[in-house]
Design brief:
By secondary structure, the protein is an alpha/beta fold. It contains twelve helices and ten strands. Helix 1 packs across helix 8, helix 3 packs parallel to helix 4 and helix 4 packs parallel to helix 5. It binds S-adenosylmethionine, 6-(5-methyl-2-OXO-imidazolidin-4-yl)-hexanoic acid and iron/sulfur cluster.
C-alpha cells in the first residue's frame, strides 16, 4: 500500500458508517472524492453491456423483479439464447465501446444441462477480447469452478439489501444462500460483482447494513452495483415510495469510502436520472455504468445520450486492463490505438 492510500477495512461498525452518512453533504462528497482519486482516474468510467440470455419465468419471488414467474408483468419469456446469437450481441457491444459483456439468466441456479452452452458463451465472448461477466443465480462449488475454468472473469450476485430487510423482499432463497454463492465464487478465483438495490422501502439503517455486509466480506467485491429500483408494473414494488436522490448519492459516496479499490457501478435506474444527478454520482465515486439501450428487460438511456454526457463531463471510457495472451494480443493493441484516439467512443 502506498503511504497516501486509504486502508481497506473489513471491520466497519454500524456507528462508523452512520457517522459517514450523517456528514454534511459537501464534506461527504469531498471525502469520497479524496478516496476515489487515490485509486482511480476520476475522469474514467468503466463501461459494460448487459444481455439477458434467458428471460422471465424465474422461480424466485424477488419483489422488485419483472422476470419473476410469481408476478404478471406482461414480459415475454425467452428460452436460453443460442450461443451464436449471444456472440453477435457481444460483437456489437464491443464495437460500441464496451469492455465487459455481462450475461444474465432468470434462473434459481444454472442446470447441469445448460452449463455446456453457458461455457461456450464465456469462451466465445472472451475470444472477442471482452471481459466476461455472468449472473445466473446461485452457484455451488462445482459450477463456480466450471465457470472459472472456462475463463469467466466476473460473477454478479447481489446481496440486494440488509440481512434484516431481506425477508420482506425475497422468500425463495436466503441471505445465507447468497453469501454461500459469493464464497464459492471467491474460492474459484473469479472476481465478484455484488451490490444491491435502493428505493425498495428500506430504511437508512438497511442501507448501512447492506454496505457493511459488502465491505466486511473477507475480500471486498471488485465491482459493487448500486441499483435504483426500477418500478415495474405488476411487481409488488411497483408503487414503492421514491428514494430521495440525495440519499442515493450519499449511499454511493459511502460505498466509495468503505470500498476504495472497488468499481462502484451506477446501475439500474439511470433512465430516470437527470444528467446532473448522474454527474453527482460520478462526483461521489461511481465509476462504472451499464451502457446500451436495454438493461436486462427494462430501458436504459439511449447510447447517444450517454456519449453526450461523457463528452460534456470530460469522462473517458476506461480501457480494459488485461494481461496479453495469444488470442487477445491484437485486441489489446487495437484498444490501445483507440485510447490514443480519445474521440472513438464519442463518435461510436
Ligand atoms: N437471476 C439472477 C439473480 O438474481 O442472481 C440474475 C439476474 S437479476 C435480474 C440481477 C440483479 O438485478 C438482481 O439481483 C437485482 O439486484 C437487480 N434487479 C432486478 N430487477 C431490478 C429492478 N426492477 N430494479 C433494480 N434492480 C433490479
Ligand atoms: C445489477 O446489479 N444490475 C443489473 C445487473 N446487475 C445484472 C440488472 C438490472 C436489472 C434491472 C431490471 C431489468 O432490466 O430487468
Ligand atoms: Fe429471478 Fe434474478 Fe429476478 Fe430474482 S432477480 S426473480 S432470481 S431473475
Amino acid at each position: 500500500m502506498q503511504q497516501d492510500q486509504t486502508e481497506i477495512r473489513h471491520d466497519w461498525s454500524e456507528q462508523e458508517v452512520r457517522a459517514l452518512f450523517e456528514l454534511p453533504f459537501n464534506d461527504l462528497l469531498f471525502k469520497a472524492q479524496l478516496v476515489h482519486r487515490q485509486y482511480f482516474n476520476p475522469n474514467e468510467v468503466q463501461v459494460s453491456t448487459l444481455l439477458s440470455i434467458k428471460t422471465g419465468a424465474c422461480p424466485e419471488d424477488c419483489k422488485y423483479c419483472p422476470q419473476s414467474g410469481h408476478y404478471n408483468t406482461g414480459l415475454e419469456k425467452e428460452r436460453l439464447m443460442q450461443v451464436d446469437a449471444v456472440l453477435e450481441k457481444a460483437k456489437q457491444a464491443k464495437e460500441s465501446g464496451s469492455t465487459r459483456f455481462c450475461m444474465g439468466a432468470a434462473w434459481k441456479h444454472p442446470a447441469d444441462k445448460d452449463m455446456p452452452y453457458v461455457i461456450e458463451m464465456v469462451k466465445g465472448v472472451k475470444a472477442l477480447g471482452l471481459e466476461t461477466c455472468m449472473t445466473l443465480g446461485m452457484l455451488d462449488e462445482g459450477k463456480a469452478e466450471q465457470l472459472a475454468d472456462a475463463g469467466l472473469d466476473y460473477y454478479n450476485h447481489n446481496l440486494d439489501t440488509s440481512p434484516e430487510f431481506y425477508g420482506n423482499i425475497i422468500t425463495t432463497r436466503t441471505y445465507q444462500d447468497r453469501l454461500d454463492t459469493l464464497h464459492h465464487v471467491r474460492e474459484s478465483g473469479m472476481k465478484i460483482c455484488s451490490g444491491g438495490i435502493l428505493g425498495m422501502g428500506e430504511t437508512a439503517t438497511d442501507r448501512i447494513g447492506l454496505l457493511r455486509q459488502l465491505a466486511n466480506l473477507p475480500k471486498q467485491p471488485e465491482s459493487v452495483p448500486i441499483n435504483m429500483l426500477v418500478k415495474v408494473k405488476g411487481t409488488p414494488l411497483e408503487n414503492a415510495e421514491t428514494l430521495d436522490n440525495l440519499d442515493f448519492i450519499r449511499t454511493i459516496a459511502v460505498a466509495r469510502i468503505m470500498m476504495p479499490q472497488s468499481h462502484v457501478r451506477l446501475s439500474a435506474g439511470r433512465e430516470n436520472m437527470s444528467d446532473e444527478m448522474q454527474a453527482m454520482t460520478f462526483m461521489a465515486g461511481a465509476n462504472s455504468i451499464f451502457y446500451g439501450e436495454c438493461l436486462l428487460t427494462t430501458p436504459n438511456p439511449e447510447t447517444h445520450r450517454d456519449l453526450q454526457l461523457f463528452k460534456r463531463l470530460g469522462i473517458n471510457p476506461e480501457q480494459r486492463i488485461s494481461e496479453a495472451d495469444d488470442t487477445q494480443e491484437q485486441v489489446i493493441i487495437n484498444n490501445l490505438q483507440k485510447q490514443q484516439d480519445k474521440s472513438f467512443f464519442y463518435e461510436a
